[in-house]
């Protein structure tokens, strides 16, 4: 029966090609506009690391004196101090964790063959690769020993390995970061993520870094952060030493807590740590406070999705509503013209339900065609977005979810539009039309 | 006016079509007026006066990696060398580039830390006396600093105690207009205002501190230094082409990066806003077209349904213009109701946008203009089908009854 209905729908489509094309076009444009803004919104807001987003936690400590304010929604600073980063990194805790910050170096081989280039570098602990599921092609992370001994080692990603070492197994080879000669201990696949969720301080949609070195190297070589440094206290900050001892906030801290119990235990540890620091004259507050958000909570907290995008999504769904109203009136016109034919079918024994279903199948077919054409329109729209700025290269794309969502939304929209016309037409009383034939 | 009643009665008999059209017009009005307002806000933001001749300025970064380099000496040499280049008006080594989204900022108060005095957050530019000339910014009151007042040192202990501030910042801190010569405090560090500059935007156009900047006579060269250069009008491209080679010839252990005109720097910063603006623009154009098509289609349908009635009216003596008028009035009736509902929806929507997002209040002017536009568009969409209806021959009525 279903196939028969599809056959009928196709005949009906061919009988009024102009109106049918108009309807398909209307739904396609609606879907094109909606999917363009929805895809960008989806890429911005989707879970960037679904397998681990629940266990990776970003730590924020309320280090500021009582009464101080910060531009976060809850006055807790986004980043932490070096003292806290070091203490928590070195504490005797069983969790994977990493204090980290971003800097940059001139990368070169100290030879004339390779033109030096500037590259952003992430300084972190050895755990970052295991925590963020970064896949090694060659080698592995540096050892705890190397980290503690400030050994000049680095993990590079595939594209850097291609550039410096022509893609071969470069374990044991050396290159230079400024004047520091570092040895490659691991090569990972390029870190691809539409949202740079692990450091949202300088552009949530920047590309991840491609070179990783132990953050102990950065401290020993006085490597300044290329990210934000926020000071709130009036204190000596002339030298790098001063920075390390100060209350300046400039590092990010991530910790992997596998279950609720670990999260609670870590929370208790943080509370006791802050109490202990209070005895050293820090954390001058009545109430100690910290934030421990997982990836999705953190993205929400930092407002990764921009207001403009949310407005665009709202507007485009309203746009879709206009398209639905449009299709509804066209469908009404089309179906009512067919009333005599339906009268005959009813007289020959078709039930109301069958007539109703037949028409819903017909509108679904329109929806499917509109959805597919809508994907084409959305691709054109997204291409336009990508050409507007390189930051959208990774964002303005349709992933599988969105490709499937497009026809689903289109068919749903068409069914919504088709319900009333189908209902009207299925109530056709056979007698009138039989008489006039 | 006696025509209104039969038209209204006829409408009542085919309510659904009219209601659908009304809804389309209402939603279109709500979307278009709000979008138009957001677009105009974005254009104002993108096109705002930054105070700089952006077309003649460019910036680049020098990243050194030779341990033996004396950054300070090298920085001064670089500056002197760039200023010598043909086509260059002036050049300066600066801690941050305006409009770039990267820089430093601090709170400047009327008193030192202990005193609870009024303070504002402002961007900080650190450079030598060539800053104003390089960026083409005029001084309104007081004077620029002299070469001897600039601290070229590698430590912050000799941080300068004089500076220039923008007019906007001066007006905010000293509403009486007597800022010149007064002292501001960055923490406990005093800074005497020796000059007040014309409009110049800071590094963050979106921040509330965009109009507040302080310029301090301080040069602190590090391994990563920023240069800004202003050229003679029309010569920028040529100078930009030569700059990398020129800088590398001065010292080989360095990488020249981020070579960009100031207009491009700004374009990058406002890219998301420009994108939103363009998307909205496309959206309202397509939306208007779709609504117009909808009206067009519905009127055609109505006419074909009423062919006999129209023929009868014509046979009974109605002129062509009467038929056209009938459809125009019918459309007007629907449009006016739709526009009224739509205007209400537009205002409600604007309130919601204002509440949830950082959007300012939409002036009613936008709703009004959109309403007039939509009305005109809907009338235009009806004229064609109405003319066609007028051409229906009276004989139709007599042929099939």
Number of β-strand runs of chain B: 12
Measured by DSSP, the beta-strand proportion of chain A falls in: 5-15%
Mean pLDDT over the full residue set of chain B: 90
Helix and strand composition category of chain A: alpha+beta
Question: Which ranges of chain A are low-confidence, i.e. pLDDT below 50, for 5 or more consecutive residues?
Answer: none
Please give the count of helices of chain A: 15
Please identify the structural class of chain B as seen in this structure: alpha+beta
What order do the helices and strands of chain B follow?
HHEHEEEHEEEHEEEEHEHHHHHH
Q: How is the main sheet of chain A built?
A: 6 strands, mixed, barrel
Largest interface: A-B, 52 and 58 residues
What average pLDDT do the residues of chain A reach? Answer: 91
What multimeric state do the chains show? heterodimer
What is the percentage of strand-forming residues of chain B?
Answer: 15-25%
Identify the strand order in the major beta sheet of chain A.
2-3-8-5-7-6
Shape annotation of chain B: elongated
Describe the structure in brief:
Chain A has helices spanning 2-15, 17-45, 82-90, 128-131, 144-148, 158-165, 215-220, 240-245, 260-278, 295-301, 307-337, 339-347, 352-388, 400-426, 430-436, and strands at 56-61, 97-108, 117-124, 136-139, 153-157, 174-177, 180-188, 211-214, 252-256, 290-294.
């Amino acid at each position: 029966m279903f196939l028969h209905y599809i056959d009928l729908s196709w005949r009906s489509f061919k009988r009024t090609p102009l109106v049918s094309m108009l309807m398909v076009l209307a739904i396609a444009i609606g879907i094109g506009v909606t999917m363009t803004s929805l895809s960008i919104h989806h890429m911005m807001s989707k879970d960037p690391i679904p397998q681990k987003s629940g266990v990776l936690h970003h730590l924020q400590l309320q280090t500021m004196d009582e009464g101080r304010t910060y531009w976060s929604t809850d006055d807790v600073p986004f980043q932490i101090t070096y003292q806290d980063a070091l203490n928590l990194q070195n504490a005797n805790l069983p969790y994977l964790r990493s204090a980290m910050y971003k800097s940059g170096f001139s990368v070169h081989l100290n030879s004339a063959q390779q033109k030096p280039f500037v590259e952003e570098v992430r300084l972190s602990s050895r755990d970052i690769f295991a925590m963020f599921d970064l896949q090694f092609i060659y080698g592995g992370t540096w050892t705890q020993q190397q980290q503690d001994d400030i050994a000049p080692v680095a993990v590079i990603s595939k594209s850097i390995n291609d550039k410096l070492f022509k893609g071969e197994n470069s374990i044991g080879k050396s290159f230079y970061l400024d004047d520091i000669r570092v040895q490659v201990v691991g090569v990972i696949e390029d870190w691809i993520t539409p949202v740079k969720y692990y450091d949202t301080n300088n552009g949530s949609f920047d590309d991840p870094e491609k070179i990783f070195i132990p953050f102990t190297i950065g401290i020993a070589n006085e490597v300044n952060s290329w990210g934000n440094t926020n000071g709130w206290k009036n204190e000596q900050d002339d030298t790098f030493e001063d920075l390390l001892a100060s209350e300046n906030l400039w590092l990010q801290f991530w910790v992997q807590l596998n279950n609720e119990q670990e999260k609670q235990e870590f929370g208790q540890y943080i509370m006791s740590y802050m109490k202990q620091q209070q005895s050293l004259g820090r954390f001058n507050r009545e109430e100690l406070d910290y934030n421990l958000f997982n990836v999705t909570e953190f993205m929400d907290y930092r407002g990764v999705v921009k207001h403009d995008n949310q407005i665009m999504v709202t507007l485009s769904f309203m746009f879709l509503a206009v398209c639905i109203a449009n299709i509804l009136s066209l469908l009404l016109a089309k179906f009512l013209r067919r009333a005599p034919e339906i009268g005959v079918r009813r007289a020959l024994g078709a039930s109301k339900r069958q007539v109703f279903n037949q028409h819903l199948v017909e509108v679904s077919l329109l929806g499917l065609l509109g959805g597919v054409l809508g994907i084409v329109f959305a691709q054109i729209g997204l291409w336009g977005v990508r050409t507007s700025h390189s930051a959208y290269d990774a964002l303005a794309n349709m992933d599988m979810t969105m490709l499937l969502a497009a026809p689903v939304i289109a068919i749903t929209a068409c069914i919504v539009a088709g319900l009333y016309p189908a209902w009207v037409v299925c109530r056709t009383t056979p007698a009138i039309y039989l008489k006039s034939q | 006016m006696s025509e209104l009643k039969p038209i209204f009665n006829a409408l009542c008999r085919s309510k659904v079509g009219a209601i659908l059209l009304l809804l389309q017009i209402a939603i279109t009005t709500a979307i278009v007026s709000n979008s138009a307002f957001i677009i105009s806000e974005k254009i104002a933001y993108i096109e705002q006066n930054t105070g700089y001749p952006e077309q003649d300025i460019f910036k680049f970064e020098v990243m050194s990696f030779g341990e033996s380099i004396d950054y300070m000496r090298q920085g001064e040499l670089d500056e002197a060398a760039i200023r010598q280049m043909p086509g260059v008006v002036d050049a300066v080594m600066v801690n941050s580039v305006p409009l770039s989204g990267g820089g430093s900022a601090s709170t400047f108060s009327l008193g030192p830390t202990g005193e609870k005095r009024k303070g504002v957050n402002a961007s900080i530019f650190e450079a030598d006396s060539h800053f104003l000339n390089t960026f083409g910014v005029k001084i309104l009151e007081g004077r620029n600093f002299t070469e001897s007042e600039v601290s070229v040192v590698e430590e912050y202990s000799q941080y300068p105690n004089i500076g220039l501030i923008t007019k906007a910042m001066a007006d905010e801190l000293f509403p009486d207009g007597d800022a010149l010569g007064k002292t501001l405090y960055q923490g406990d560090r005093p800074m005497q205002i020796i000059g007040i500059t014309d409009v110049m935007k800071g590094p963050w156009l979106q921040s509330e501190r965009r109009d507040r900047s302080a310029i301090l006579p301080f040069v602190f060269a590090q391994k990563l230094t920023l240069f800004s250069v202003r050229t003679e009008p029309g010569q920028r491209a040529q100078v930009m082409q030569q700059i990398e080679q020129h800088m590398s010839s001065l010292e080989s252990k360095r990488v020249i990066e981020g070579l960009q005109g100031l207009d491009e720097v700004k374009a990058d910063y406002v890219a998301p806003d420009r994108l939103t603006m363009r998307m909205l623009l496309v959206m309202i154009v397509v939306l208007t077209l779709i609504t117009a098509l909808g009206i067009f289609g519905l009127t055609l349908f109505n006419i074909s349904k009423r062919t006999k009635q129209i023929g009868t009216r014509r046979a009974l003596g109605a002129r062509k213009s009467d038929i056209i008028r009938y459809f125009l009035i019918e459309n007007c009736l629907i449009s006016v109701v739709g526009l009224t509902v739509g205007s209400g929806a537009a205002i409600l929507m604007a309130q919601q946008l204002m509440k949830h997002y950082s959007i300012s209040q939409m002036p009613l002017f936008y709703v009004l203009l959109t309403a007039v536009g939509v009305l005109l568009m809907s009338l235009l969409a009806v004229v064609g089908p109405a003319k066609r209806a007028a051409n229906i021959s009276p004989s139709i009525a007599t042929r099939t009854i």
